[in-house]
Amino acid sequence: GYELYDRSLGAAAHTAASDAELLFNVLSHAEHQALMGRKTMFINCTHESLVGRHLELIHPERVVLEIPPLEGNSPAEIEARLPVLMEVKRKGFRLAFSQVMLTRPYAAWLPLASYIKLDMSQLKPELIEPLVKFAQKHCTAKLIAEKVETAAQHELAAQHGIKLFQGYWFATPVLVK
Questions:
Q1: Which of these, 93, 90, 84, lies nearest to 65 by C-alpha position?
Q2: What would the 3-class secondary structure string for 15-82 be?
Q3: Are 2 and 41 in contact (CB under 8 A)?
């Protein structure tokens, strides 16, 4: 698949409006079929963009929405976001989350996960096996090792049963204008 991310903005400037603009730009690109082919698009989202009508423009079976963890990981805020996530999932979208999903505050979101991304640049090698085992026991999400930048990181993730990878070890980002 492809991950779409507007790198022209800093993380603080990433908004629902920038999510919609990115999606409109990709869909209006004259050769978007050549860009995507029959691949799945992973689209980085804000929580606010999940309620936007722009999602009606895309076919859910071709899209995975990457949902960030909430700042501060407040249990009340996490619980408050659950109905929106459930509605997006009900519409047919698959959801991807970071390894933060494998922590206690996010337990209610775990059944919604189609993918969980393990950040190989942040995880200590000794934590990969317990995280993989926990994920396999508590959800059906596919695991993706992301930010894989070395052969050693790839081998470590593969040894623990991870079959999906993303990172500079495999390919560098391609700018789409």
A1: 93
A2: CHHHHHHHHHHHHHCCCHHHHHCCCCEEEECCCHHHHCHHHHHCCHHHEEEECCCCHHHCHHHHHHHH
A3: yes
Report the distance separating Cα 151 and Cα 170, nearest Å. Answer: 10
pLDDT in tens, 163-174: 999 999 988 877
Which residue has tokens 């082919």?
37
pLDDT in tens, 100-126: 999 999 999 999 999 999 999 999 999
Q: Is 133:103 a contact under the CB 8 Å cutoff?
A: no
Phi first, then psi: what are they for 33, rounded to 5°?
Answer: -65, -40
Question: Looking up tokens 């960030």, which residue turns up?
Answer: 68
For residue 19, give Cα distances in angstroms to 28, 102, 155. Answer: 14, 25, 34
Structure-token match 């990981």, residue found: 73
Give Cα 106 distance to the centre of its chain. 15
